[in-house]
Amino acid sequence: MTQWIWMNGQTIPMDQARIxxxxxxxxxxxxxxxxxxxxxxxxxxxxxxxARLWNSAAGIRxxxxxxxxxxxxxxxxxxxxxGVREGxxxxxxxxxxxxxxxxxxxxxxxxxxxxxxxxxxxxxPGQVGVSLISVEDERWKRCWVKSIALLPNxxxxxxxxxxxxxxxxxVDGGVMQSGVITECCASNFxxxxxxALVTHPVGARxxxxxxxxxxxxxxxxxxxxxxxRPLTLAQAKGADEVFISSTVREINFVHAWDGVRxxxxxxxxVTLSLHRALHGRIREECPMG
Amino acid sequence: MTQWIWMNGQTIPMDQARIxxxxxxxxxxxxxxxxxxxxxxxxxxxxxxxARLWNSAAGIRxxxxxxxxxxxxxxxxxxxxxGVREGxxxxxxxxxxxxxxxxxxxxxxxxxxxxxxxxxxxxxPGQVGVSLISVEDERWKRCWVKSIALLPNxxxxxxxxxxxxxxxxxVDGGVMQSGVITECCASNFxxxxxxALVTHPVGARxxxxxxxxxxxxxxxxxxxxxxxRPLTLAQAKGADEVFISSTVREINFVHAWDGVRxxxxxxxxVTLSLHRALHGRIREECPMG
Lengths: 289, 289
Prior knowledge:
homodimer, alpha+beta, 7 helices, 29% strand
């Protein structure tokens, strides 16, 4: 089956898509991206993802030359024509092609593209648990920008896999020093402590996750106290429940961390309740067809 | 005139070169690079550049599937066939094409490419001065890897240009706090203080510059004391001479920094002496044809 890609306004077969060698996405990581979940043939939280894309682009001073609603329409059309039922849209914008030079060039047309990948339909809350390993947070200090400069994340994720774990959690200030938990390789980090939902504030060190923001909203709706504050590694490991969230993962409870079982290795009540509420929100926006 | 590129063993026209959308260099900044200067049709310090390429690759666990001497031969042949007299070779290696997933994939062929760009012949020592601005060092902590995750450098360089300066110098710990000078956007930083040559040690924060290493060697040959130690911003601004070095720049003296004139705005004697020695070394390796 032909894999299609939308690129600068045209839908073409993936194997005909050509990125220029001097695309600044390839030579400078000069770009930003989004991953959007599709449920039942509908993109979930599309407007929030596009708003973040524009924020990320502004963070690297990239002017997208398309209107957000035009891009949204192109994505919806692509999903419909491609018959995507359960999957994701991967969307990337780079500065475009220019002779190699660090400084941002003027008058260059950005490269904008997206394509879809299939995913399994969503699993019932509490079905998927993950194990974490701690790694030092060596990333740059503008993590609120969802940039393609992901090499630190690649190395951390690979370290996790090699340690037999599923995901790496970044510790700012060092693992041995019990530094501060910021977020994971490709997900946000949450702890439930004394009935409150605790997560690091977004900003220099933490991406404003779309699922993260939804979960804080849903928690408030359930009268669960929300605390956006740093936790040390030692504090977080003593939490009653630990989970991670992302667009693709939704919520995964954490059953082990650095080889030690967490919270009996089972999903806790707050984790389950929030995941059920998230599914409710998804079903409202993407009703079963 | 056709622009050529060497890509995975084949020399093809640049406009026919195609980077795959899922090349990990484009989606994850999962790659490393080198810039090699060509003088009089000869690559300068080629072995040192290739040794660093292999070190950088090891730093991101990228296995290059070509032998260094085979790559060196291909570069020399490319320079010869292309008639490159004064210029540079831009060389990049990425993890290759794989379905998007953070973890390093197995069994994927790296993407390896290089091409040339013309440059002006070298200017006489002391002819080119530059102005600097200070920016906070927000980069990741493995700067000894010459990775393509250059977005922080892009933003810093652009800030320099917009401030009317030529290059940005990174300050670890903050500019207002007079943190430590590490290096510049695309060059190493040197100060001459009480007759000694001072520069930050290489490692987490500083790339092992090829020209940097040569200059330390040449300084020792001239009995100039070499001190690899951190300097604060305030200390460095009080230096007798300030200069930056890179493969493309060789040595540029610094005449202004954050809008203030440095060392009377002229190249100092140690700067000039080292630049002359560097030219001597270049002429030994790349004799005039």
